[in-house]
Amino acid sequence: MIALHSIPVVMLASALLGIEPDAPRRVMIGRDLSRTEIVVDALDSSGVHTRDAKGSRRIIPHTDLLALYRPARVTTVPGTPVLSLTDGQRIVGSLAKSADGLTVSTGDDVMVEHPSLGVVRVPLDAVSTLVMPGMPAPGRASGGDLVLLSNGDAVRGLVTRVGAQIAIEGESGGERLIPLDAVASVRLQNPIQRASGPTVWLADGCVVRVSMPGTASEAGLVALDPALTRVHSASESEPSPGVPTTILDNVIGWMPDAGRLVPLSRLEFVGVSPLAPRPWTDAPVIGAGDEAPLSAAEIRMPGPCVATWKLPPNADGVSCEVVLPEAFRDWGDCEVVIGASSRADGTAPTDVWRGRVNAERPVATVSADLPAGSATLVVRVEPGERGPVQDRPTLAFAMIRVSAR
Q: I want to staple 274 with a disulfide (CB 3.0 to 4.6 A). Which of 177, 213, 278, 369 is the partner?
């Protein structure tokens, strides 16, 4: 990995509802999975400088927190491609152009231009997908790399270059060059990597791994170094200065180590079964992770059911908010039970949390440890006194804690 010059990020003080009503709140997930609303004054190598709802100030060491986020929906810049990496990083930016206006690549690298990050060089073997504006992301499937064309055709093989043209070696041999403007999306079959290290989430949908911030200045400037190589232009290799951004407007999430928290919405879904009196059930509806801070998409439960997800190795905790949406509060009243099982099919789970949500108490916060050796997470929605009508809670910001390696 190549070291870079730092990008200054202005860490402006934000405030909670009740202190400065117009300012967005920040939520801190502690090492124990507790969730606390705070004001962030600064971020540096010593930790997060905070104020709580009472105005008390303290510095929270990075080792004492797992994440910091602002509940806000990501607003992706219209008409901009999205390049996703195998470790969960994501850059919303145009493919960089050379002086003659041509979109370029440098063999095994993809060049992407972002207004704050500048032009960055992404190794081709670290790319998961490239999705062109207005096009859906391609699903992961077996076989070779996949290039979907805007006319609906599909080309399979081995992608060797991404730039003004997509170069792909066909399954029957020979190289085909496809103009970028004819492409809807590209899916590379590079192995998925576990996220790790300090990571920031930006309001435009970018997820960028960085080095630990240095010492903050009196003005609140903090140095963040992207793990990707940044260059002056598509034809130069010298590092370029970054463009300042603000935590108030643009930085909506921060993790000292992205490998410690995994969004439940990103885990493999095992299955769902109905609970009486319902003879059937739909599957939970997963929201758009690319639009959520920390990539934690909402999980909308379909009603009384038992839903199971496969846990990552060494999973040892679960944290989320169980919310009964306003549309379901006239009749909705249910118990939500979260458990973990050592079995792959989720049977015989050990319950770790139980709570009730209804119109009087529509939100419940979950912070629970998981038993050692847990292989699956099991979420059970039980109908309340009024039966199953409108018993459709949402799991918001659901995260699985993974023990440090």
A: 278
